[in-house]
Amino acid sequence: MKVLTLNFLTCAVKACKSTSAAFPLHPKDCELVSDTLEANPKLLFNILPRIDWNALIITASELGFPTLPPTPPTPEQLENDPKMMQELHTLLLETQISEGSLVCANCSHEYRVKEGIANFLLPNHLV
Amino acid sequence: MSRPEDTLPPDLHYNDAEAKKYTTSSRIQNIQASMTHRALELLDLDRPSMILDVGCGSGLSGEILSSVDPSEGGPHIWVGMDISASMLDVALQRDVEGDLMLADIGQGVPFRAGSFDAAISISAIQWLCNAESSEVSSTGRLSRFFNGLYASLKRGGRAVCQFYPKNDQQRTMISGAAIKAGFGAGILEDDPGTKNHKLYLVLTVGGSEAEGNGGDITGVVKGMEGVDVLDARRKHREKGRKELKKGSKAWILSKKEQMERKGKVVKNSSKYTGRKRHIAF
């Protein structure tokens, strides 16, 4: 599972829908793999405004990545800075969680991740 | 013809053997590919986007999403949800590019608001009409799914869901649930009346109204060749707008029709209906 996807995932439990603590999910005991993907600047420009930057900073620090700047780069900055573009590409798209679990900070439900597939099936009483 | 939906729930129906069969059958592959291309055409994406694949299965449609040519706005990245672990296992073996999630779409779509540019679903949402236990209802599952989908799409986003309804009732149930969730919904029917007729539920999330498209399927198919638009709402609107003069022939006929619909006994209409009498003196 890509770090980018993690930036969009929230807890699926019904009681967590209205709380802000349900996002982002916190990775726990995660094994990371790196997958080489072709850089796609257009895609980055398209999704950049939708990334929750604060959540990304939290995720990056929890996964042990170097600290990100406190504010998201503007498209112009990104265009003029190929190194930053490459770093973002590596973090968001190439870094993948292969094993471990994702924990909701609100209800502390653990979503297992196996072979890169997160298990979001819930028992009926939580839906 | 037997429907797999009638036999078992999807997570049990698509076991290892069935998932393998589904993915290796060249006939299914071809049908899936053509439906995915049709759905992409309806989505009309012009730049690399983030797409949600609902019921992604073994990633047959996802594969096409990640291989869209850069000149046509691709390649897209996608996140796939499916309830069948065996199907996802096949997807892993096929080494698809998108992210996979084991999730039941009837339990909602666990993404924050405005995550995706578009959503695609090939032959999946009819499974929502089945409720496997007494704790869940099909209407509840449908509404949870469409509400979640509506929230996770960005404004101006679109979703195209190809589905196989069992009957007209299921078809109205599904499109009704989508409309209730707030979507601008419409159904595109390909090759109607033939054996391989396909239904696409085209959903839009606000936004496009400003471009004069009406913000729903009629805007989506505008400019496409060979599409007849049947807008039930327009007929209704026009009918409502025209005020009939009380006592006129058209008024009498409409009243008679109304009474007939209520089940009352109504005299037959003839050329004399609503005609003025002669002045006797």
From TrEMBL, chain A:
Compartments reported by the entry? Cytoplasm; Nucleus
- Tell me which InterPro entries the record gives: Trm112, Trm112-like
GO BP terms: namely: rRNA (guanine-N7)-methylation; tRNA methylation
Q: Name one Pfam family in it.
A: Trm112p
Question: Superkingdom of this entry's organism?
Answer: Eukaryota
Instruction: Write down any Gene Ontology CC term.
Output: cytoplasm
Which GO terms fall under molecular function for this chain's record?
A: protein heterodimerization activity
Cite the entry's keywords alphabetically.
Cytoplasm, Nucleus
UniProt similarity note:
Belongs to the TRM112 family.
Q: Which PANTHER family does the entry link to? A: MULTIFUNCTIONAL METHYLTRANSFERASE SUBUNIT TRM112-LIKE PROTEIN (PTHR12773:SF0), UPF0315 PROTEIN-RELATED (PTHR12773)
What is the protein name given in its UniProt record? Multifunctional methyltransferase subunit trm112
Automatic annotation (TrEMBL), chain B:
- Asked whether the UniProt record includes Nucleus among its keywords, one would answer yes
Q: Which Pfam families match?
A: Methyltransf_11 (PF08241), WBS_methylT (PF12589)
Q: Which InterPro entries match?
A: Bud23-like (IPR039769), Bud23_C (IPR022238), Methyltransf_11 (IPR013216), SAM-dependent_MTases_sf (IPR029063)
Q: Which GO terms describe its cellular component?
A: cytoplasm; nucleolus
Ranges of residues in domain 18S rRNA (guanine(1575)-N(7))-methyltransferase Bud23 C-terminal: 211-278
Single Gene Ontology BP term?
A: rRNA (guanine-N7)-methylation
Principal localisation: cytoplasm
Entries under CDD domains matching the protein? AdoMet_MTases
Question: Keywords of this protein's UniProt record, alphabetized?
Answer: Cytoplasm, Methyltransferase, Nucleus, S-adenosyl-L-methionine, Transferase
Residue ranges annotated for the Methyltransferase type domain, each copy included: 52-161
Question: GO molecular function terms here?
Answer: rRNA (guanine) methyltransferase activity
Q: Does the keyword Acetylation apply?
A: no
Compartment(s) where it occurs, according to its Swiss-Prot or TrEMBL record = Cytoplasm; Nucleus
Which family does the UniProt entry place this protein in? Belongs to the class I-like SAM-binding methyltransferase superfamily. BUD23/WBSCR22 family.
Instruction: Provide the protein name.
Output: Methyltransferase type 11 domain-containing protein
